[in-house]
Design a protein that fits this description.
single chain
């Protein structure tokens, strides 16, 4: 496929949500006062940060837009008129789209004889994206099981979880376990929760036992790679630099558009990369960027936040980022509506 400019997927998502918001006759407001307060303090901080950093206005503005685009999308989505019936129909559609597409990868693995994690063949962008889709599918199945009590959905959730184990992706497996624990502790008495958790742990232990050789091999490769790369491991280097930036500019950061983000390469390679010796690491080097060979500057998300916003800004960002989960937990605990509980479970998961 042709290569699209960086950030185009974010922009298309924003325009798609904006269109949905517009055609439903929605108004641009958000009734949750606490969220608006968080936005105000984040914007105030970003304004103050601009006067403490040395970065061009255009880079800073682009950095701000892409860093906080999730919040703009959240506000538009929250004010888009919809029905729970439409949402649950969407969930069903996604499951029955993702299931056959996932089987393509499994069949390819069986035919070629290669493990999924060593020779990924499939329709999703890469192995990590495949793992994300599998976890989303597990969540959707569990939500629909909570709603309908139809056993086919709990079976499908199990199928998606088995495929996740076959990928041997540790973070995806851990994420899937967290999803199941949230589900197990979302219903029933304390005795039922303990009993369900014991059953899950038994199944999990059995799965680990059968996949132990592949998991050990995968973990060993990771350990060897980290040992060989040392401080030049691209992700470790980005985290180290991010914390140094945040410490040097305490409590601020280097400013949006300077580190680990798209505009840090707009109008040239950011000076911050030179200041903190990032340029010396080959996969992060300006040569790789200029030659268009592909680089790893954007491979790790949180260094971008820590380095650009600093410690104080990161705290404000995290509060905004996780606010929907806090709100969903409150709704789950306080509502008597079964549908609201099901959708709150979806948001939390």
């Amino acid at each position: 496929l042709p290569s699209f400019p960086g950030g185009i997927k974010h922009l298309l998502l924003f325009l798609f949500v904006l269109y949905g918001w517009y055609v439903t006759g929605s108004k641009l407001y958000y009734h949750d006062k606490n969220y608006l307060i968080l936005i105000f303090f984040n914007c105030l901080y970003i304004t103050i940060l601009f006067f403490t950093t040395k970065v061009s206005v255009i880079n800073y503005f682009i950095g701000f837009v892409f860093t906080y685009l999730f919040s703009f999308i959240f506000i538009l989505s929250s004010n888009t008129k919809n029905s729970t019936k439409n949402l649950f129909n969407l969930f069903k559609s996604l499951i029955f789209i993702f299931l056959p597409l996932s089987f393509i990868t499994v069949l390819a693995s069986l035919i070629t004889g290669y493990q999924i994690n060593t020779n990924y063949i499939g329709v999703f962008r890469e192995l990590g994206a495949f793992g994300t889709v599998l976890n989303i599918s597990s969540i959707l199945c569990l939500v629909l099981f909570l709603k309908t009590n139809n056993r086919k959905y709990i079976i499908l959730a199990g199928v998606f979880s088995i495929i996740i184990f076959l990928t041997i992706m540790k973070k995806s497996i851990l994420s899937n376990c967290i999803i199941w624990f949230i589900y197990l502790f979302s219903k029933g008495s304390i005795k039922q929760k303990i009993f369900q958790s014991l059953i899950f742990l038994s199944i999990f232990t059995l799965a680990i036992f059968f996949m132990r050789n592949q998991l050990i091999e995968n973990i060993t490769k990771n350990i060897d790679y980290v040992s060989d790369a040392g401080d030049e491991h691209v992700r470790i280097a980005m985290y180290n630099a991010a914390f140094k930036i945040a410490s040097d500019h305490f409590p601020f950061g280097a400013g949006t558009g300077t580190f680990g983000s798209l505009p840090s390469l707009y109008n040239g390679y950011s000076k911050v990369y030179y200041d903190y010796n990032i340029y010396l690491i080959e996969p992060l080097s300006p040569e790789r960027v200029l030659e268009g060979e592909g680089h790893d500057l954007f491979d790790t998300f949180w260094p971008h936040i820590i380095g650009e916003l600093g410690f104080l800004g990161t705290i404000l960002f995290i509060l905004l980022w996780f606010y929907p989960i806090f709100k969903a937990v409150i709704h789950y605990k306080n509502t008597s509506s079964k549908e609201i509980k099901e959708l709150a479970f979806y948001v939390i998961s």
